[in-house]
Structures are given as structure tokens and as C-alpha cells.
Write a structure and sequence with these properties.
Blueprint lengths: L23 H11 L7 E5 L5 H8 L4 E5 L3 H14 L7 E5 L3 H10 L4 E6 L8 H10 L3 E12 L11 E9 L2 E8 L4
Parallel strand pairs: 1-2, 1-4, 2-3, 4-5
Antiparallel strand pairs: 5-7, 6-7
Amino acid sequence: MKIILGDWSGRNFFMPAHIRPTQNILRKAVFDIIGHDLEGIRLLDLFAGSGAVGMEALSCGAAEVCFVERDPVCVKVIRENLALLKPAERGLKAEVLEQDAFAAIKALAREQRMFDIVFFDPPFDQKLGRKALKTLLTHDILTPYSYIVAQYGLDEALEDAGGLFKVIKNKKYGTSNLTVLERCEAK
């Protein structure tokens, strides 16, 4: 796979053989919606897989990306990809947390970490989209002007975001749905 946007556009990265990657068309759609200039942004990439979305964000100038993945093979691949791209040489922070996404959200809230964009793409067969959204909404890790970007299976629907977020994009891409929510009220 290749990075499609930003400073690292065209650079190859490793992909674990056993995962369903976020396809180029969908990654491009995400950044067309939230923007290509992410300077200063902090992004949380839950169920990170290969880390493709987080690497695109770093390529577009995100100041910090936290990759959360519990599969040790995927974690190893993310670390290898980051070693190739060397974000620290550009003054960017990349952190990899090898743990369950829901435990990570709770731990990040306890540490009072805040993110401007949260992307999640759980395994479709486990139908974790609603649970991920609910967990994000009940733990204070989102800045006042944040986005939640969710990719999930066609057989799942996301619940209401409790009036805190409004849907700015909801579209089917192949075998998945993409929903982008924007925070509609500052805390």
C-alpha cells in the first residue's frame, strides 16, 4: 500500500496479511472531509491495523498520532512503518499502544489526553462501531472542535451521538459505511 496524501505521498508501507485495510478511496475521502492540512492536530487511530490512516495524518502534518491496536502482529507492522517514515525527524509524535481500544480510551481519559480527531475502523464481523462511539462519548478525550470518523460494516448502524456531534458525512464505500461526525457544541 502507499500513502496517498501529504509530504510522504507515494511512499510504500507494510500491510499485515490478515487484515482488511482502509482502502485508498476511503482514506482520501476522510481527508477530503476533515482537510489535508492537519498541522497541530492530535489524532487517535483506534483499531489501527496497519496504521494507514494515522500515517496519512502524519504525512499531512498532524503533530501527534496515537495508534491503538491489540494484535501483536499489527503492532509490529505499525512500528516497522513508523521506523521507515521517521516522523520524529519532522518533529511529529507517533505513539503505539498495544491494547484493547476500549481500555485505551478509558486510560487516555484518566491521563487527561485530548484529541482533535478520532478515527475508528473495528473488525466488521464483531460489530463494535456502536460500542466504540458510545465509549468515546462517555470519556472526555475529545477537544471542543473535534471530529469522530467511523468506518464500519454495512450491517451496523451508529446510534445518536447524544446531541454533542452532528453527522456531516454518511456514505457507503464498497462493503463499509463511512460516517464523519463534527462536534456541534463546545464544552
